[in-house]
């Protein structure tokens, strides 16, 4: 049994600062220079900040929001809020003003700490005047009443008693892919269990290095990187900006690197812009060159030392995982959700024969499939409920089991495959239900397609909305249409008659967080696209199977 078993995250911070006070814990690039924070530095700054927050009149159990991109100060704030007995409320740094206002008002936050933001003018109108504003040490046009240096001038708070495991630690709002975000309540005990589970299941240790760049406001990064760092003692680095991303990752040379399907797809597109797929295939077949090519690709991404490559948050195409596997980069797929702290199943140690599954249950996690095909989960790292939403809590938590809303199946070895999502299913005009996710996963096998969304509620047949990969040369429309048509024909041959796609519509305008089609975790808001293209059947030209949206506009 691990020596850290049953220790809360705050206890681990104290322990690390005592055992390895001078070891570098956090590495933050600013203006091209790397700034190092030791474990003792981090503890002292968090203790000073906690004292400063108390001096402002904030009381234990008050909600304090965090709005910032990932940085060392985000970690320090999280620890300070734990020390002070406050409840943290992270907000996505890309959230619009409406989401910011909703989360602040729904959570009843008394204060907000703001930090690194790409454009603070987007979020500022969403912060009500009565909420206290506190600024991290980053230049920002957003006005603040209290500043980092002033708060850290306070004497460090005396080491407080550790919280009760059932005490509320944080409220993490879901990304809102199907409507208003829900506030997931997470207590200290659940957070400790999930973070420890990740460390033991993945064998992460103090010699590992991670890069924190996926939003810390999302539970995956909060558990798999921030939480895991406390229980493993590993070092964490950050990135300065999108423009310095590869440079900063290369400088860190992480041993642990977690990403999402869209970014892995973008990485592949970037590689194929430099070397064509046929040439890559040829080089990988030559023994003397294969190893060299693999090392060069890994080094080009800054991942030459990575021993664990992870992927989660959204469905990923098995063909994409196979593509990386051929390059000597096996990607561990995992599955979870905010409600079970993103720690449920993972394909680690990596099993090539289990690509297409999301792995099997982690330590102390139970998974079963209901009679309706829904995935049920039971584990120590589970939410206590939805904030101010008792009915939704009772619907999700029944007899100790979390009803995930995902559908799946278990094989004989306990490996889980996701087959769809209950709320994603739609009924066509023929009165039959279609699960879009498995169809979208198959579409992703075509390297031309970066993303797709299958819609069809009320339509005679489902239809695929498609975004092409950035590397695709859109000047060769005829060739693109030909390849997509071949994919469509092959796919429809595998589907039941009511599932078959009537066609594909190529959307050229990117789906982004800013235009409200993507969530901050890069999931597609299916309901938004359903609304936008609800009238598609009336304008779809007869006989056309593949159509560019601009052509559809001309027809209108």
From TrEMBL:
It holds the Pfam family AMP-binding_C_3. Transmembrane segments: none annotated. InterPro entries: AMP-bd_C_sf, AMP-binding_CS, AMP-dep_synth/lig_dom, ANL_N_sf. Residues 15-387 form the AMP-dependent synthetase/ligase domain. It comes from the Bacteria. Keywords: ATP-binding, Nucleotide-binding. The keyword ATP-binding applies. It catalyses: a long-chain fatty acid + ATP + CoA = a long-chain fatty acyl-CoA + AMP + diphosphate. SUPFAM superfamilies: Acetyl-CoA synthetase-like (SSF56801). This is AMP-binding protein. It comes from Oceanisphaera ostreae.
């Amino acid at each position: 049994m691990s020596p850290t078993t049953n220790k809360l995250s705050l206890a681990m911070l104290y322990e690390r600062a005592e055992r390895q006070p001078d070891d570098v814990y956090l590495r933050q690039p600013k203006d091209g220079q790397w700034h190092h924070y030791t474990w003792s530095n981090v503890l002292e700054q968090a203790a000073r900040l906690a004292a400063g927050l108390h001096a402002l009149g904030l009381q234990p159990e008050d909600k304090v929001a965090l709005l910032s991109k990932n940085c060392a100060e985000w970690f320090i704030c999280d620890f300070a809020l734990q020390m002070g007995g406050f409840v943290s409320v992270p907000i996505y740094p890309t959230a619009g003003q409406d989401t910011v206002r909703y989360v602040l008002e729904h959570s009843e936050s008394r204060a907000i700490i703001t930090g690194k933001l790409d454009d603070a003018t987007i979020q500022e109108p969403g912060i009500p005047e009565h909420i206290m504003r506190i600024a991290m040490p980053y230049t920002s046009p957003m006005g603040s009443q209290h500043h980092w240096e002033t708060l850290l001038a306070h004497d460090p708070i005396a080491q407080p008693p550790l919280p009760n495991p059932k005490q509320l630690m944080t409220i993490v709002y879901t990304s809102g892919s199907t409507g208003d975000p829900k506030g997931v309540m997470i207590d200290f005990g659940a957070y400790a269990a999930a973070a420890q589970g990740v460390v033991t299941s993945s064998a992460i240790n103090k010699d590992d290095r991670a890069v924190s760049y996926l939003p810390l406001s999302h539970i995956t990064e909060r558990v798999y990187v921030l939480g895991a760092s406390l229980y493993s003692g590993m070092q964490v680095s950050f990135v300065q900006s999108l423009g310095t991303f590869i440079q900063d990752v290369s400088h860190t040379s992480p041993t642990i690197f977690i990403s999402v399907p869209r970014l892995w797809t973008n990485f592949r597109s970037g590689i194929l812009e430099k070397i064509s797929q046929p040439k890559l295939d040829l080089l990988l077949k030559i023994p003397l060159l294969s190893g060299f090519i693999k090392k060069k690709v890994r080094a080009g991404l800054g991942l030459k030392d990575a021993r664990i490559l992870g992927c989660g948050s959204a469905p990923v195409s098995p063909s994409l995982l196979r593509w990386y596997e051929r390059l000597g980069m096996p990607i561990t797929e995992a599955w979870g959700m905010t409600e079970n702290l993103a720690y449920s199943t993972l394909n680690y140690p990596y099993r090539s024969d289990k690509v297409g599954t999301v792995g099997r249950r982690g330590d102390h996690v139970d998974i079963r499939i209901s009679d309706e095909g829904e995935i049920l989960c039971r584990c120590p790292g589970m939410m206590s409920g939805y904030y101010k939403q008792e009915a939704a809590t009772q619907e999700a938590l029944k007899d100790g089991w979390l009803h995930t809303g995902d559908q799946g199946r278990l094989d004989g070895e306990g490996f889980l495959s996701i087959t769809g999502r209950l709320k994603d299913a739609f009924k066509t005009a023929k009165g039959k239900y279609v699960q879009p996710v498995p169809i979208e996963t198959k579409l992703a096998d075509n390297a031309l397609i970066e993303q797709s969304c299958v819609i069809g509620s009320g339509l005679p047949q489902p239809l695929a909305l498609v975004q092409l990969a950035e590397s695709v040369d859109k000047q060769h429309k005829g060739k693109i249409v030909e390849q997509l048509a071949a994919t469509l024909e092959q796919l429809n041959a595998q589907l039941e008659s009511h599932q078959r796609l009537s066609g594909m519509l190529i959307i050229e305008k990117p789906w982004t967080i800013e235009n409200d089609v993507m969530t901050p975790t890069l999931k597609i808001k299916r309901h938004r696209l359903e609304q936008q293209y609800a009238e598609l059947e009336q304008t779809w030209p007869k006989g056309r199977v593949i159509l560019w949206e601009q052509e559809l506009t001309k027809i209108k």
